[in-house]
Amino acid sequence: MEKLITPFRFQPKTDGRSLLTDETRPIQLETLDLDVYYGEKHAIKQVNLPLYQNTVTALIGPSGCGKSTFLRCLNRMNDMIPGTRVMGKILVEGVNINDSRINVTQLRRQIGMVFQRPNPFAKSIYENIVFAPRLYGISKKEQEKLVEESLRKTGLWDEVKDRLHTSALALSGGQQQRLCIARAIAMKPKIILLDEPASALDPVSTGKIEELVQELKNEFTIAIVTHNMQQAARISDYTAYFYMGELIEHDRTDVLFVNPRKKETEDYLTGRFG
Amino acid sequence: MTLVSAWVLIITLFSLLYFIASKGIAPFLHGEVTLADFFSGNWGPSLSAEQGGPQYGALDFILGSLMVALGSAVISGPLGIGAALFMTEIAPKAGRKILQPAVEILVGIPSVVYGFIGLTLIVPALRSIFGEVGFGLLAGIIVLSVMILPTIISISADAIHSVPQGIREGSYALGATRWQTISGLVIRVAQPGLLTAVVLGIARAFGEALAVQMVIGNTADLPFHLLKPMSTLTSVITLNMGNTVQGSTYNNVLWSMALILLLMTLILILAIRFIARRREV
Q1: Which run of H or of E encompasses B258?
Q2: Domain ABC transporter: where (chain A) (predicted)?
């Protein structure tokens, strides 16, 4: 059989543009014509998406639609996967961070990330939080302050303050995930990327994570990938619907869920999908 | 069928243990040699009674075996772990394509070849550099280091490989560099496995006979000089086993040395078990 190598032709669904040109909030991060290839696979196609300051943007869509891939571009985690090419611009405060001259480790301190499976290090709770700050030099006193502050912000402080120096692996799944969030905010980032942070957790822990996200947006700009549409509706200000690597629709969450402009979005939201 | 093979294995192991132990304890039970004599440094099995002999002190050899094994672990430990880190963390592609086959080939080379290379290359080289005979502790350590390197590399690589990917991602996402991730987290998590690798390397070095015997000089001296000839338990056993009369005191003392070797290996294996168990907690 002949190998099909069709040249990529962009067929705009949204013209690749955000529909929110009337939005007045400042933009914290913005992608311009972002394309991602895994080898020959075109995983993200011409995506233009802004993240507005101090808001929560939910990325939804079926499995394999590219939402996680998109998220991982924003702090250059795709650099770690051999054979990945990311093209287009990712602007943060006017700087294109998708540029080989960018100091990636520096960047990741400003754009934190939390993963689907809680991944605390096999160290104490305290050590988990100070691990990264310590790499850049931090005094003992500052460390203690930072640990308390980060744990308080994630609502963990009262639960773990008596066992800061015991293993983080002894915590429950939900606590571990909140510790991972605490670890990320200890770096004082501007943006936090959450990759399905609650999908491995029970409903109670999920509820706590959702509350936490609501609180954190006062201080950070948040992008969250989720499979759970109720969750997206509950916690996000904006929602972006991805399908087959394309951004189909991006709008305010209350608008998108009630009055989607695209038929594809409506079909997905109402479960008439596929 | 599998049950039968399991039993064959167990019976073989225990009969070996029984045989070596009974032979090895014999000289002490018959009062031919005392424990104090055996653990002394006076070796003179062919000395006549007038000369105060025969003497069967094996201390030089016990220490010799320890020194060679530890010395080669000191060289191969860091080298092997470094190579394992390189082939798993830094250049997985080159690791799989070049280092992995290289390691497998190193494992397959018979020990007599290592000994031969040591004899023709290393010993003369040491002789011309340091001006001594060339045979000795250093030559033994070098040859053994190369021999145990593949063991250490492959077991370390497995240990590093089994560190969950999430740990690395978490670290990178916090802005840690690759080296900070490796030194601060990966090595820490893999530590029990790395220790197991080194201990197994020591066990292998401890039991190796042929290659060591070819380069070590085989004199009954304390092994505290890198360039002076010495002996190990294994080299003394292989050299003298065929030349002594079955059932003679000399022959039985060789069995005692074999027993010591066996006990040391057992201790090392137990140490590995202990390390492995601690990992599970």
Answers
A1: helix B249-280
A2: 29-269
